[in-house]
Design brief:
Layout lengths: L1 E2 L2 E5 L5 H11 L4 H7 L3 H22 E8 L2 E9 L8 H13 L3 H16 L6 E9 L8 H11 L5 E6 L2 H9 L3 E4 L2 E2 L2 E2 L1 E5 L10
Parallel strand pairs: 5-6
Antiparallel strand pairs: 1-2, 2-3, 3-4, 4-5, 6-10, 7-10, 8-9
Helix pairs in contact: 1-3, 2-5, 3-4
Length: 208
């Protein structure tokens, strides 16, 4: 799908490394990432890139990994895990393990494990699409790219609920405008987080 100069499409395998770098750069200042991956910005981005290098292929195998492009340049990413694939099975855990272990120090890995395990406990039992990450390149933010990616996910959900987690209040307000409501607000590693679900119809516009 194309809107204005932005093209929305599934991310091919050749662009997965670029997608991992984009997510790491766009989400480097997230409160949980600061707690888990450290205060040094360069080290934090390297660690996040390793994490997303394992996570994004998992999402592509078990759902949809959408991208926003300006020409050939990837400027936005949205992951969607299909119903029943939110939590990795044993074989998927084996595939994910190298990226997870390489993404942090031993202490940082314990923080990562605590963070992911706590969020997993809240995962809804009802069928749902699990969204995330949603990331837009810093120099392309506030141009409607994130909204356009989200509207594709909403349009293609076929009546199935959408679920996500965030650790930024600004994101909460953004998702609420798209029809999401807060289901829980757990505090992880001293950081407030919001769990949200969309069960309401939403009229999409695809405008940028």
């Amino acid at each position: 799908m194309q809107t204005s100069q932005i093209t929305l499409a599934l991310i091919p395998k050749v662009d997965l490394k670029a997608a991992a770098r984009l997510c790491a750069e766009a989400m480097a200042e997230n409160p949980l990432h600061l707690k888990v991956f450290g205060q040094d910005i360069n080290k934090r981005q390297r660690r996040l890139t390793r994490l997303f290098s394992g996570l994004l292929p998992y999402i592509a195998r078990n759902g949809e990994l959408s991208g926003a492009y300006v020409g050939q340049q990837l400027v936005g990413v949205l992951g969607r895990l299909s119903p029943g694939h939110c939590q990795p099975y044993y074989l998927e855990l084996i595939k994910l393990a190298p990226a997870l272990l390489a993404s942090n120090s031993p202490l940082g890995w314990l923080r990562t494990r605590h963070w992911l395990n706590q969020w997993a406990k809240f995962d809804p039992a009802t069928p749902h699409w699990h969204l995330g990450p949603l990331a837009v390149a810093p120099n392309h933010q506030r141009q409607g790219i994130g909204r356009a990616l989200m509207e594709v996910a909403i349009n293609e959900a076929n009546g199935v609920s959408l679920y996500l987690e965030t650790d930024k209040l600004s994101n909460v307000l953004f998702y609420q405008k798209l029809g999401f409501h807060i289901t829980a607000t757990p505090t992880l590693l001293g950081t407030k987080t919001w769990l949200m679900m969309n069960k309401q119809p939403y009229v999409t516009r695809y405008t940028l």
